[in-house]
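Justification of computing resources. Each target in the renewal requires a structure prediction run like the one illustrated here; the chain below, 352 residues long, is used simply to show the kind of job we budget for.
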Amino acid sequence: MAGRRAAPLCCCLLALAAAAAVAQGKAASRGLPDLQGDRDLIGWSEQIRPDDKPRRGMKVLSWDPRIILYEGLLTEEECDHLVRKAEPRLTRSGVVDVDNPSNEGISDIRTSYGMFFDRQEDEVISYVEKKLSEWSLIPPGHGEGIQVLRYANGQEYKPHFDYFFDSFSVSNGGNRLATILMYLSTPEEGGETVFPNVKAPPEQTREAGYSECAMDGLAVKSRKGDAVLFFSLRTEGTLDKGSLHGSCPTLKGTKYAATKWYHVAHYAMHGEQAVHVDHVTFIPPPPPVPAGCKDEKSACPGWAEGGECEANPGFMVGTKELPGACLLSCGRCDLMKPAALSSNRKVAGVAR
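Resulting structure tokens:
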């Protein structure tokens, strides 16, 4: 009986092996990476990997906020392809004008050069986007096109939120839910991604090769092929203040990075119908609003949620003699005057 059952089993195994060989051959003929190693896409530990296997796997850097590093997510060939294809199209990066969110302008907040790919612009980009979605568990259609950035000669991106604080920017697919930063090169010095609102671990020191900027909080070094995933929204639907992040100045060498922003719903591109999303939060309602107390700017609730009432009190709160622009959102209605004051205050742009 045992001998008669073995034959079908052998045939099945041979058929599976042949199918795998055909699939591998097709991938090679298209110039795509071998998918055989993707079985350990999520979290095989170092202890069970052969010593000669390239550095690859996940590390949770923080649970609150959620920040996860994937070492070796992209191959050398994928990194080089993105850089080579992006380089001729790079222009000075811009930031959103908060008073007119449909416009972008040049600012010292962000001194890099960048460009955007279309979703699925070519076969390699489509494959990279597929890997990103399988890791993040967010559908590809929720993502904006991959943005490639180049930093050199001290260029930086000062700490900012990827979360939007205005109604215009969230009219397509709702707010940004999560971000994946991919490192396409390894600069000689600097260029770390720093999270200023997250405490740096004890092993993160200048002696360990981190720049002075990186000591402001939890930092991730730019290593070619690595990627870091973090979430701008907490599970109750509010801004995660720990997602504040920046790119430290690249002090030596050139840093190439790629960004993938994901929204809470489908992000429409190339004539697709934009999806409207009502922002719902699972938190207790605020206390009743005193009569006449209001914000001067529509972005005030988001700014207050991001900690600007404490970080920028002169503009947000002000004084009894000159009340700020966001009394309602900052809970300082006690400073309002009987007659509403008009103001032409201007603020720095929120980075996009």
